[in-house]
Amino acid sequence: MKRKLNHFFLLLGVILFTSCGGSSSLGKENRSMRSTLDGTWQLAEVTYNGEGYYKSTLFNDANAKCYEGSQWFFRSNNSTGTYELSGDQCNPGVRYIRWSIQNDAEGNPVAFTFKFTDEQKKDLYGGAGYVFNIQSITENTMVLSGTESAGGDPVELIYQFNKIQL
């Protein structure tokens, strides 16, 4: 009986090992893209794709203008990070996040996601988060887009990040 159990676990291990091995190229691409984000970034500008003047609250937290100039820190080895808002009208302070990059079927990065956590990295708000389309990511710049509600209507926002420190 013990021998059959050992064979079962050996077979299970082989199946798990081989089933995970086929996606290594996707994993390497994702790891490479994730490591590109390591460090401190500044959200230089938030713009709206459309005509008119918009006022919106981002991430149920603060006015979009409060995010311009905010610093975001990404750590790829554990998918955590922070961003900090400043200014009296901006609900100042540090926010903790868990983030990821999602690839399409060909391994190309297409989405950046994040959700809020507490200082101990436990999910807040039931694990709900935000999804952004990746427009571009290089060693020094990142452009994301996402849809927010402004006056009850969906509006595309463009987030322009610049890397300021590794």
From TrEMBL:
Domain Lipocalin-like: 37-144
Superkingdom of source: Bacteria
PROSITE patterns (alphabetical): PROKAR_LIPOPROTEIN
Protein name listed in UniProt: Lipocalin-like domain-containing protein
